[in-house]
Design a protein that fits this description.
Structural class: alpha/beta
Strand content: 15-25%
Number of domains: 2
Order of helices and strands: EEHEHHEHHEEEEEHHEHHHEE
Number of strands: 12
Strand order of the largest sheet: 1-2-3-4-5
Shape: globular
Number of helices: 10
CATH architecture of the largest domain: 4-Layer Sandwich
Length: 277
Amino acid sequence: MGVIKHDKKSILIDSGLDADAGKKILKILEENGLSPKIIINTHSHADHCGGNSYIKEKTGALIYASEIEAELIQAPYLEPFYLFSGAAPPKYLKNRFLMAPPSIVDNVLKSTDEYLLNDKIRIVRMPGHSPNQIGIESENVLFCADSVFSEDVLKKHKIPFCTDVEKQKTTLAFLKNSKYTYYIPCHAEPTDNIVPLADANLRAMTEIEDSILEILREKKTTEDIIKSLCKKYEIEVKDIQQYYLTNTTVLAYLSALNETQKLKMGIDGNMLYWERV
């Protein structure tokens, strides 16, 4: 989470997982003589917007979020709903890690919106990890949300969550070419040089794509591909939630490889198959 001081008020960048996180945030702000005026959510995942409801109730802070992400923040049921292919999700997906408490978004940021508060805060588009993730720039510091992961996170999770592979690559390329004084990612340490981290994430993505192409020397179903990838990366899927997060990410890679004409998809024996072009 981030804080930008604005007079005696503050602007929060994300709000944590739940009400407990919200309580801690308000305590820290109060100790520093600050009160939240605005919460800007970088995206709709519960660990970034779960404290919204509590903070808004206690302070009246206004909530800002981008299009698409705002809909998910206001209707958290949509998160497990889309993970379960648009069908009513089972109870295993309806938990606090996938469904934050709902909160009303007071200002939906459109694609044409670039600045807030008299040009003091710039909205930076960073889609890929989620459909319409944004970063926030202030005084040449970039809060870059989940656009990059630390090398430790990459080693631990191996196939980090992503909804759009090509947009994620574009976001990482933007970071590599940017010149901010300081970068503050949510799942890595703050840094004044984002290039090594962006490169590590791009390498991980390339390795996943190459692994999928290697697996598809003969046509396979999505579940066959997931099983083979997990074996290659020594991943043990331990619960339903992990399975569906992995499934969505693998589908993002398959879709991207299909769009770049490296894979084709088809139906055989009432089953969906993928194969190399």
